[in-house]
# Entry
Amino acid sequence: MHARPAAAFVKIAQQFKSDIYIERNGQTINGKSILGILTLACPQNGKLTIRTDGPDKLAAMKALENLIENKFGED
# Structure
């Protein structure tokens, strides 16, 4: 994931109280950290697992799902 989509992901993630985690190839990072996301070095069409945990976890997951479905607003 390059910087623009990573920034969009973090912007959405930071709106929620829940913890957000992204996993790729056994490495788990904080989904609210742009540096963490960039260190995953996930290529286009790569697979990520997103996990949310906390009081607004369902809303957070839905917002992130919408962001991804809309191709991070880059389409």
